[in-house]
Amino acid sequence: MKNVWAFDLGASNGRLMVSQFDGNYLHLDEIHRFPNHPVQLTGHYYWDILRIYQEMKNGMVKSIQKGFRTIESLSIDTWGVDFGLISASGELLGNPYSYRDPHTNESLKEIVKTIPKEELFTRTGVEPAAINTICQLNAIKENNPGLLERAETLLLTPNLLSYLFSGMNVNEYTISTTTSLYNFQQRNWDFSIMEALNFPKHLMANIVETGTIIGSTLDSINQEVGTSPVKVVAGAGHDTACALAALPIKVENAAFMSCGTWILMGVQVSEPVVSKEALQWGFTNEGTADGEYRLLKNTMGLWLIQKCRAAWLNEGISITYEEEGQLIRNSKPFQSLIDPDDPEFFNPENMPKKIREYCIKKVQQPPETKGEFLRCILESLSLKYRWVIERLELLIGKSIEVIHMGGGGIQNELLCQFTANATNRRVVAGPIEASAIGNSLTQWIALGEIKDLKEGREIVEQSFQVRTYEPQNQADWHDAYGRFIKLLH
Questions:
Q1: 267 with 381, same domain?
Q2: Residue 82 near residue 99, CB atoms below 8 Å
């Protein structure tokens, strides 16, 4: 069977998966996994891009050692908005900033003095937010202008890594739409926005369609890892676009959820929805692997639990996933609720402490035990997803009957069940490795082995298991939602 390398890099870990296709079924093997966290240095948060690059090469070597010697192609997907800058001589200019870096805190306020939020949203389709590429560029222009002056090319994270492997500097469609610099009507960079903000217009590498074969691995890479040249595909660069591509969606009235550190929840649309309500409610429009758009809301995901685990680990307490589930089941339902998207929870030093403070401020009994903290988080997340679903229905003028959940977060079975309960909708969870599968699908399509995404999704459905969750305990969840809505207001 033929093999492709799918590099699926998230904001908490990265992995290399080998995908095989026998003409009927897809097979996926995890070869290498490594942690990935921003590094705090001199008051900033950076991505250790050279370590990520080295770990990717380590994965290549492992893959060959395990017998996957003939590789047709590789593709890389990552989180959105972040980027690296390349000099005129082709060198990387420092480690890329992380979207969690505070240097963008004031950028949006400055940008909207020149381009009002409403105009920015209607031109780019993207919710104006401090983490976006446009704000990061503005922060660099204001605080580190020398870096921007030396830069010749901006490459978004998956395309930066593709450049390190191939030497080809292009940006792919789906990841480009996350920047607040992509004009969906022109289907190109919005150079008038860049001119208004005094950004160098030459900076943005050309945009290519999803599935473009941009070149092959460099000779130096081939010699280092011991492989023949491998085609480098600009597959769906954004991990959520990959996840959506892999979900076995059959009906039009279905929503998707890509579940991990963040949870991105939305529907596929042919054209962006840029109404005043979409802006007011914090929705955004990003590209899909087949050239359409994902109308979605970027909501907090399992980051809250990850930060609680980290705080408890600092106290010398480690809890397994199985123990977490039991602790939650043994805790009283709906004792305390939070708005998981409150800015206070974005990156606190101590998440449990911040949750307690929030509950006290909102005149609720704060969590005391670890099970109560975990239950508070999962119930609050699920209730927020109901809020998102209801507003999605208003924006598209259609009812949503089923929710497809994919990604590593669906291994948390209580998250899936609570989402079904809170939204009163059937949840279809799977596949777990949705982003990596979608990554590989775009490669198999580019290689001509699979016709299109429709055929690809049919192959995914017969190749990987999914699990269905039906709503339970509706009266209790409905009452809790009433309390939750009061918190939001």
A1: yes
A2: yes
Catalytic residues, which ones? 239
Query: Rounded distance, CA 458 to CA 465, Å?
Result: 12
Number of structural domains (the chain) is 2
The residues near 131 (Cβ < 8 Å, ≥ 6 apart) are 81, 99, 100, 104
Stated as kind and residue range, the H or E segment containing 459 is helix 453-463
Q: Which domain holds residue 154?
A: 2-238
Please tell me the predicted confidence (pLDDT) of residue 11. 84
Assigned domain for 119 exists: yes
For residue 77, which of 154, 178, 8 has the smallest C-alpha distance?
8
pLDDT at res. 380: 98
Cα distances (Å, whole numbers) of residue 359 to 22, 347, 351, 353, 387: 53, 17, 12, 10, 20
Q: Residue range 164-190: average pLDDT?
A: 98
Domain end among 190, 212, 238 = 238
How many Å apart are CA 443 and CA 440, to the nearest integer?
Answer: 5
Residues 147 and 261 in one domain: no
Which pLDDT score, from 0 to 100, does residue 261 have? 86
Residues 218 and 320 in one domain: no
Q: Rounded to whole angstroms, how far apart are CA atoms 271 and 184?
A: 9
3-state secondary structure 143-188: HCHHHHHHEEEEEEHHHHHHHHHHCCCCEEHHHHCCCCCEECCCCE
Do 435 and 410 touch, CB atoms closer than 8 A? no
Inter-residue contact 463 to 27 (CB < 8 Å)? yes
Specify the pLDDT at position 76. 98
Name the domain boundary from 180, 210, 238. 238
| Residues contacting 245, CB < 8 A, separation 6+ | 236, 288, 289, 290, 437, 438, 441, 442, 453, 456, 457
| pLDDT band at residue 489 under the 50/70/90 scheme | confident
**pLDDT tens profile 80-110:** 999 999 999 999 999 999 998 999 999 999 9
Whether residue 111 lies inside any domain: the answer is: yes
User: What is the average pLDDT across 420-444?
Assistant: 97
| pTM summary value | 0.91
Assess contact for 248 and 457: CB atoms under 8 A. yes
Whether the CB-CB separation of 438 and 244 falls below 8 Å is answered with yes
- Residues 217 and 266 occupy one common structural domain: no
